[in-house]
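Hey, I'm writing a tutorial for new members on how sequence and structure tokens pair up, and I'd like a real worked example in the thread rather than a made-up one. If someone can provide the structure for the chain below, I'll link this post from the tutorial.
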Amino acid sequence: MTNNNYEYKNLDHTPSQPIESINLHSIPDNNSETHANTPLLGPTNDNQQSPYEEVAINVPNHDDPTVLCLTFRSVFIGILLIFVKAITDQLFALRTLPLSLDIGIIILLSFMIGKFLEKILPEKLFNMTVNPKPFSVKEHTLAVIMAMSVDGNNSLIQAIAVQRVYYNYYLHHFNAIIFMITFQLFALSIAGILKRYLVWPGAMIWPKTLMTCCVIRTLHNEDETELNQSRWTMSRFKFFWLMLLFQFLWYWFPGYIFPLLASFSFVCMIAPNNLIFSQITGANGLSIGALQFDWNAWVSFLDSPI
């Protein structure tokens, strides 16, 4: 078995062995003596290469310290998207089919804003560097992390709304803000405590986060070899804008023109006065057999299947 726990032996964060030379198809064997003697935590195994090929390709274990991360652009984009996502999620949280900006939209918006600022911002403003070209993957990742920090607040708002609507208990605005901040800090503290056990070891795998890493790396990939060999001639930006235009035009039908398309039940139309059929197949019931032509109806209460 090939040992994938390669240590960083120098100070410039260079791996002792390149990723290409590692056998990525090796799966850790719980009965292996080498695996058994390797501690879960230690001062040298936090940067180990993942034994899973999908993780190793999309999440490298080396770092380029020359790439900037905390810049004016990343902070500006992060704060801007925090307000956009928080306001959008809150305004549409109490709809029949809640609308939310998921991480895929945040990744694309932050990338487009970053590239736009890269072109229009001056290099320096008031003796401060505001545009260190180009827009790096670290800046992009930091902006996405900042924007997604407000994700999940809808559940806390719903708890406050339920107390007001159903229990006639009015929580003061200051107490509500403290309630939300407390839960956010509690969640962040738990994440900070468990990251050494659930994030840093190379054997850990997070499928949903893996998709995020893959999309971000794809947008910043400068290798044109695969693009030249592909039959796909449309650029990512053109494809994104075409899909955005199509989604904008289509949403007028289930959203305003013909809302029945959001959850279409043939059984309820055949027997509209049947209470049992309404509870089983209706939009406000179990929705068994109902057809949904609105993407938001699929992902409102469940995670995106993409």
